[in-house]
Amino acid sequence: MAKNFPQIFESICLSIDLGFYYKHASKKPWSDIDGLLQNVIADALAPYDRSELITLRDYLDELLGSNDPAEVLTETWNRMKPLTAFFGDAEDGSADTGIVHVFKQVRRAIEEKLTSTE
Q1: Separation between Cα atoms, residue 54 and residue 49, nearest integer Å
Q2: If we measure between CA atoms, which residue out of 21, 1, 18 comes closest to residue 72?
Q3: Is the pLDDT of residue 96 over 70?
Q4: C-alpha span between 53 and 60 (Å, rounded)
Q5: pLDDT exceeds 60 at position 91
Q6: Is the pTM of this model over 0.85?
Q7: pLDDT tens for residues 30-85?
Q8: Under DSSP, is residue 97 helix (H, G, I), strand (E, B) or coil?
Q9: Which residues of 71-85 are buried (b: 16+ CB within 10 A; e: fewer)?
Q10: CA 6 to chain centre
């Protein structure tokens, strides 16, 4: 995996991190993690245009398609010195780790935005 990542990915990660840490943490209870995650992701993606979303989608496809997406995503996430950490497994019953679940949800939200603007 390339050591450099697109600027938009770094920006999205920062937005997600700060969204969890500051903006939404007091608005929704942590017991509603899926609702909190949806709000954080929606805010993080809001300022980007179609071409930027495509760049982000393609990069996420690369990360999620790696041999060990949990390891790759954790390493990439941690390089940005985040305030938020994603531990454990996803609560949706899948075999995904928390961080893979988060970025699969980001990927899903990107696809929804892209298809809704076509």
Answers
A1: 9
A2: 1
A3: yes
A4: 10
A5: no
A6: no
A7: 566 778 889 899 999 999 999 999 999 999 999 999 999 999 998 888 888 888 77
A8: strand
A9: ebbbebbeeeebebe
A10: 14
Q: What is the DSSP letter of 67?
A: S
**Separation between Cα atoms, residue 18 and residue 23, nearest integer Å:** 7
Per the listing, tokens 């603007």 go with 117
Dist. CA 75–CA 69, nearest whole Å: 10
- Locate 55 and state its tokens: 């760049």
The closest of 23, 36, 25 to 101, measured between CA atoms, is 36
Closest Cα to residue 4, out of 80, 57, 61?
80
Query: What is the rounded distance in angstroms from the CA atom of residue 81 to the CA atom of residue 43?
Result: 20
The rounded distance, in Å, linking the Cα atoms of 4 and 26 is 33
Q: Is the dihedral of CA 69, 72, 78, 79 positive or negative?
A: negative
| Dihedral, CA of residue 6, residue 14, residue 61 and residue 109, to nearest 10 | -130
> Which residues share a beta bridge with 89?
97
Per the document, the length of the chain is 118
